[in-house]
Amino acid sequence: MIVVLNRDISIHDKEMVRIYLRDRGFSVREQSFGDDTILGATGKAVIDLRELGLLPGVGRVASTSKPYELASRETHEEDTIVTVAATPSLPGVKIGGSRISVIAGPCAVESKEQIRETAARVRESGAVMLRGGAFKPRTSPYAFQGLGMEGLEYMKLAGEENGMPIVTEVVSPELAVQMKDLTDMFQIGARNMQNFELLKKVGSLGKPVLLKRGPSATIEEWLLSAEYLLAAGTQDVVLCERGIRTFETYTRNTLDISAIPVVKGLSHLPVIVDPSHAVGIRDKVSQAALAAVAAGADGLTVEVHPRPDTALSDGPQSLYPEQFEKLMRDIEALAPVVGKELLRTPRPHHGLPAGGTGSTPALLSSSAGIAELPVAYSGESGAYAEQALMRIFGEEAERLQVSGFSAVFDAVLEGSASAGVIPVENSLAGSVHENYDLFLRYPDIAIVGELKLRIVHCLIADSRADIESIRIIRSHPQAFAQCRDFLDKHPGWILEPCNNTAAAVASIVQEGAIKVAAIAGEAAARAQGLAVLREGIETNPLNYTRFVVISRRENGGRALAPPSLGSDKPNKASLVFSVPDEPGSLFACLSIMSQRGINLSKLESRPIQGKPWEYLFYVDVSIPPGEGIFDQVVAELKTKTRDFHFLGTYRASR
Ligand code: PEP
Ligand code: MN
User: Fold this and answer.
1) How far, in Å, from the CA of 78 to the mean position of ligand 1?
2) Could you tell me the residue ranges of all domains in the chain?
3) Is 547 a catalytic residue?
4) Is 3.40.50.970 the CATH classification of the domain at 2-62?
């Protein structure tokens, strides 16, 4: 049974609830998840749950239908986000929520040089944590057993050098205590999943734990092992599917893909996948990794070795660094399809950053300065722009909600927001001209980042409503157009346009209407407490909106990118210009770019208001690698164009 306490319960009332339960023979464990405090009570007594629910400070009582309580989604509906290696000044690395976090490194730490080299290579490709075994539980007693504490010291050094927290396997309760200050996260290996004394000890140390599934463990046994860790005191448990033993012998184990959605339904804990131990064959690991992402995994742990053929353990399943680089690119392309974002340690700093300075990885750098101010977006809670903002800046980012896109520009210009997030283009509907116009009106605002968000529209209404009772549909006209096929099936519905999709949801909440539904994202329904009647009602599932991060130019020059955008060198620029009304004028501009091998990812013309038959061109281009080449291109373009607006340089989102 679980007792969810009100957030403002007094210490006295909490104690009274404990006493009530203990007096009736229950053993009670307290656990907090985010802002919620939960008492998990186990015992045989049958009590009237209504009576318990009436005690002061008790929010909700539920008898869990599962043998595990703290790990169950019944106790905690929201996804748990585990943070590794956070300090008061560093945000740490997050696992869970809408991100994909990739851990990589060798099977075993073999030498100081080997772990440092591997760390640098996987970090270069964007891995956010370093893995490696110092104590190796090997099937054969004659196989390499690991370098022990010395190996852990090397790993800590390699992690620090590359700004990556480390995760390593712990094999005994005594070693857990010794290793505590050297590792950022403990790994419980598959063979030890049911070593309950180890689970109790490791859980009590308060560090995040990666719990691998035993090769022959059922999902329920696995979650009960997670329950041991949670009951012992840690809140930060990440589950790891690493293949189970089946009759199939071709692969080392059989990756249980279906366990991912199943466990995510049963538990609030993040689930990551180890495709290396699951498959055991290097050339098949990446496919399994991508399948795991498609199935909803929150991350991966992948074995990578600079020279797998010489590896002291698991060489045949370790990826070459080049294979890992390719895998990371493929994950980045796949992530938006499943509504996620690949969390990346920014690449080491090779040149001028988008605005920030220094080479500290942004994920681990302190978010001092401009990032302390909120980030502005236009719309109600749960708007697509807010989702984009949280993908870029994290779920906890302070947000400033304003009404209208020009208010976002104003907030950034006046300094009440450090940055803003606005849509500039939809893959089906085209450019958001209003925002392009605003860039021209606000020359001191520049683009410093971008993100592509997959748009999945839902039909949203009061939980008492059903689809038959709906008479009126509200949304932004764009969303109506994008859901044409679905709406055509209900010709009797009256369509009422709203300023934005989340505002449509808000209007239903305000009126308490039950015959009205809104078309908006699932996040808007969740944020505003309404129900999703239908999910994915857009006609074309390949529906993406490109959002950009805007920031203020310092002294009319370069705009500062908030540190959380990373210090990667920009590789994309956005320009707006018009050309003289004479033959070949646009061609002259395009040839300046083609001669330098610059790729155009966007070229759109738009009539200039008030000047019939004159056009503005919106141009997105790649920035060539050579130092100074792009500046030269811009200087030449200025001589061939009329109105030239440089909207900003930033890192392209795939
Ligand atoms: C490992 O990750 O190094 C390992 C030994 O994996 P498992 O416990 O899943 O076999
Ligand atoms: Mn291994």
Assistant:
1) 29
2) 2-62, 98-342, 363-454+544-650, 458-535
3) yes
4) no
CATH 3.40.190.10 fits 363-454+544-650, yes or no: yes
Report the atom number in ligand 1 closest to the C-alpha of 108: 3
The per-residue DSSP string of 459-492 comes to: EEE-TT--GGG--EEEE-HHHHHHTHHHHHT-TT
Same fold: 98-342 with 363-454+544-650: no
Place of tokens 């346009």: 497
251 annotated active-site: no
Q: What is the pLDDT of residues 68-121, one digit of tens each?
A: 989 999 888 899 999 999 887 777 999 999 999 999 999 999 999 999 999 999
Buried b / exposed e over 336-351, threshold 16 CB at 10 Å, is: beebbbbbbbbbebee
Q: The whole model's pTM is what?
A: 0.81
The domain defined by 458-535 folds into D-Maltodextrin-Binding Protein; domain 2 (3.40.190)
Q: Whole-number mean pLDDT of the chain? A: 91
Ligand 1 atom with least separation from CA of 243: 9
Range 49-55 average pLDDT: 91
Residue pair 280/317 in contact by the 8 Å Cβ criterion:
yes
- Does 364 have pLDDT greater than 70? no
- Please report which confidence band the pLDDT of residue 372 belongs to, taking 50, 70 and 90 as the band edges: low
Pocket test for ligand 1, best of 118, 167, 169, 216 (most atoms within 8 A of CB): 169
pLDDT tens digits along 111-129: 999 999 999 999 999 999 9
DSSP-derived secondary structure for 621-643: EEPPSSTTHHHHHHHHHHHH-SS
Structure tokens at 397: 């980012």
- Kindly give the distance from the C-alpha atom of residue 326 to the centroid of ligand 1, in angstroms, as a whole number: 23
Select which of 186, 324, 480, 547 is catalytic. Answer: 547
Give the position, in ligand 1's atom list, of the atom nearest the Cα of 187: 2
Residue among 107, 241, 276 to mutate when testing ligand 1 (max atoms within 8 A of CB): 107
Angle between helix 585-595 and 629-640 (nearest 10)? 170
Report the pLDDT value the prediction gives residue 559, as an integer from 0 to 100.
82
- List, chain by chain if needed, residues with CB within 6 Å of any ligand 1 atom: 107, 133, 169, 189-191, 212, 242, 274, 277
Cα(317) to centroid(ligand 1), Å: 12
